[in-house]
Design brief:
The complex is a heterodimer. Chain A is α+β, with helices and mostly antiparallel strands. Chain A has a single domain, classed as Alpha-Beta Plaits, CATH 3.30.70. Chain A has 9 helices and 10 strands. In chain A, a hairpin with a 5-residue loop joins strand 4 and strand 5. The longest helix of chain A has 13 residues. Chain B is mainly alpha-helical. Chain B has one domain. Chain B has 10 helices and no strands. In chain B, helix 5 packs across helix 6. Classes of the chains: A alpha+beta, B mainly alpha. At the A-B interface, helix 7 of A face loops of B.
C-alpha cells in the first residue's frame, strides 16, 4: 500500500476487486475452529507465545488487562440458577471454551480509524499491522469489537527474555517495543515462507503447506487453516458444509442444524474465522 | 566489459578519516559506477550512497583480487544468495579448496591456514546488517535481476550485487556504501515494479 492509495481513496482500498476496490485477492486466508473438539487446554495460546515472540507480562499486569496473548481462550460458564434441579448444571457441563484470535475481518473496524495507516488490508485478505508505522494511538483497539488487539504498555522485552532466553526468540518476526499495537497475524511469517517455497518450485501454494502455530499444536485438531478462495481446500469445504459464507451479515441457512457461525457477524465485520458450535446433551 | 574505474587503494579503506580527496574520489567512483549499472537489462539501479566505515575483519580479505583480478563470480563463495534469504559467508573449507595450493606463502593465507588447522573459522563481522524488522530475500532479487532476466548473463552477476553492495570488487574488505534504508528499497521497488505491500518486507 502506498501513500497515494491512502490519500486517494482509503475506503476503496479496503474493498476487494470484485466490489470495485483495489484488491485482486491472491488468497483469502481463513480458519474454522471446531468448539466441539476444543478442550480448552491452552496449547494454542502457548504455541502462539513461542512462535510470535509474545511477551509474558506477569500476574500484576495481567490483572490490569495488559496481557499480550494474541490467542486467548475465553471461558463461558452456564448460569448456575436456571431453575429447580438445574442448580449445578455448570458443574455437570463444565465451561465452554472459545479460542479468540484476530478474526481477520474483511471489513475490519480497526483499519479505517488508524491515523497513520499502520493497519491495512493485504492482498491476502489479512488484516496487517505494521509495527514501525504504529504511533500507539490505540484507536484501533478501542474500535475492535472483539478486543483482540494488544498494546505494549512497557518495553516487555527487557524482562520477558532474560539471558539466555532471548535465544528462543523467533527471528522471522520482530520483537515489539513500547507504544506499539500488535495482534494475531495468522502466522504471516509461515505464510511468507510457504509462498517463497512455492515460488521456488514454480507452483501455487498448496492446501496444507501453511500451518499456523495454534493449528499445529492443537491436540484435538480443532483448528483448520487454509485459503477460502481455493474451493478444494479443507477449510473452504468446512465453511461450505456448515453453510457459512463470506460477505454476509447473517447466514440464512437452509439447514438450521448446521453448526457454523461467526462471532458478532451482525456487526458486518465479515470475519474470516468460523466457529462450529459445541454440541451438548441437555 | 570495463567499468573505467581506478582501483581503490586498500590504505584508503583502512583510514577512518576520509580525506577530502577520498570523498571526491568516491563521488566520482559512484558516478562512474552509476553509469555502469544502467547496462543491466530490464533494471533501474537504486540511487543513494552511504559513508560506510571500515570494518575490522579477522583477516583482511581482498575482494579486489578475487572478484576483479581473477573474475571469480560473487556466487562462487556467497553460495546461498541464489538459494535463500542470506547470501552467506563461505566456510573455511571453501577457502582452503583453492588456498591449499594457491598463494600458500602469503601472510594472509598463512593466517587462514592457521585457522583451518585449528579447526576454527575466522570470526567474520557483518557489514551489511539490516534491522531485525526487515524481511529481505536474496533469492527473489537474484531471480528477478539475473536468472529470470532476459539478456542477463550470470557472469555479470556482480553488477546486480553492486546495486545494493556497491563496487565490492574494488574494495579489499567489504564496506557499506549504500544506505540500505526504506527509501532506498522503496525507490528501487517503484522503478522496477517490485511489490509495494508493507508486509512483504516488514515483519
Amino acid at each position: 500500500m502506498s501513500l497515494e492509495n491512502i490519500l486517494k481513496d482509503w475506503s476503496k482500498y479496503r474493498r476487494g476487486h470484485e466490489e470495485g476496490g483495489h484488491h485482486d485477492y491472491e488468497h483469502m486466508w481463513g480458519m474454522a475452529i471446531d468448539l466441539d473438539k476444543c478442550t480448552g487446554c491452552n496449547a494454542c495460546s502457548v504455541a502462539c507465545y513461542a512462535e510470535n515472540n509474545l511477551a509474558v507480562v506477569g500476574e500484576e499486569k495481567f490483572s490490569k488487562g495488559q496481557a499480550m496473548h494474541w490467542l486467548r481462550i475465553e471461558r463461558y460458564w452456564d448460569e448456575p440458577d436456571l431453575g429447580e434441579n438445574r442448580v449445578n448444571e455448570y458443574q455437570i457441563h463444565g465451561a465452554s471454551f472459545l479460542p479468540m484470535n484476530c478474526q481477520q475481518c474483511n471489513a475490519a473496524t480497526c483499519e479505517p480509524v488508524c491515523p497513520v495507516a499502520a493497519t491495512y488490508h493485504t492482498p491476502d485478505g489479512l488484516n496487517a499491522q505494521v509495527y514501525n508505522r504504529c504511533i500507539g494511538s490505540r484507536y484501533c483497539s478501542n474500535n475492535c469489537p472483539y478486543r483482540l488487539r494488544y498494546f505494549n504498555f512497557f518495553s516487555y522485552y527487557e524482562d520477558s527474555w532474560p539471558e539466555p532466553l532471548q535465544m528462543q526468540l523467533n527471528p522471522d518476526i520482530s520483537v515489539r517495543d513500547k507504544g506499539v499495537m500488535e495482534k494475531c497475524t495468522f502466522c504471516v511469517q509461515r505464510i511468507r515462507k510457504a509462498k517463497d517455497d512455492a515460488a521456488r518450485e514454480q507452483r501455487d501454494v498448496l492446501d496444507g503447506d501453511i500451518k499456523t502455530a495454534c493449528q499445529q499444536s492443537c491436540a484435538t485438531q480443532a483448528i483448520v487453516f487454509g485459503d477460502l478462495l481455493d474451493e478444494d481446500s479443507v477449510v473452504s469445504k468446512v465453511w461450505k458444509k456448515h453453510e457459512v459464507a463470506l460477505g454476509k451479515a447473517s447466514q440464512n441457512k437452509a439447514n438450521p442444524d448446521k453448526r457454523g457461525y461467526r462471532v458478532l457477524e451482525g456487526l458486518n465485520t465479515d470475519p474470516c474465522i468460523m466457529f462450529l458450535e459445541r454440541v451438548r446433551e441437555v | 566489459m570495463t567499468y573505467g574505474l581506478i582501483p581503490e587503494k586498500a590504505s584508503q579503506c583502512n583510514s577512518n578519516n576520509v580525506s577530502r580527496f577520498g570523498m571526491v574520489f568516491s563521488l566520482l567512483l559512484l558516478f562512474f559506477a552509476g553509469s555502469a549499472y544502467a547496462q543491466v537489462p530490464n533494471a533501474v539501479a537504486p540511487k543513494g550512497d552511504h559513508d560506510g566505515k571500515h570494518v575490522e575483519q579477522p583477516i583482511e580479505f581482498p575482494h579486489d583480487i578475487h572478484a576483479r583480478d581473477n573474475k571469480i563470480n560473487c556466487m562462487y563463495c556467497h553460495t546461498y544468495a541464489r538459494r535463500g534469504n542470506v547470501a552467506g559467508i563461505p566456510p573455511t573449507s571453501k577457502c582452503m579448496g583453492c588456498h591449499a595450493v594457491i598463494a600458500t606463502e602469503k601472510p594472509r593465507i598463512k593466517q587462514l591456514t592457521e585457522y583451518w588447522q585449528k579447526g576454527e573459522s575466522p570470526k567474520w563481522k557483518k557489514v551489511h546488517d539490516l534491522p531485525d524488522f526487515v524481511h529481505f530475500n536474496h533469492e527473489k532479487h537474484l531471480n528477478r535481476f539475473i536468472f529470470n532476466n532476459e539478456g542477463m548473463e550470470v557472469e555479470r552477476a556482480d553488477e546486480v550485487c553492486a546495486f545494493c553492495h556497491g563496487e565490492i570488487k574494488e574494495m579489499t574488505v567489504a564496506r557499506k556504501v549504500k544506505p540500505l534504508n526504506m527509501g532506498f528499497c522503496r525507490q528501487c521497488h517503484e522503478d522496477n515494479n517490485g511489490p509495494s505491500d508493507c508486509w512483504k518486507c516488514h515483519k
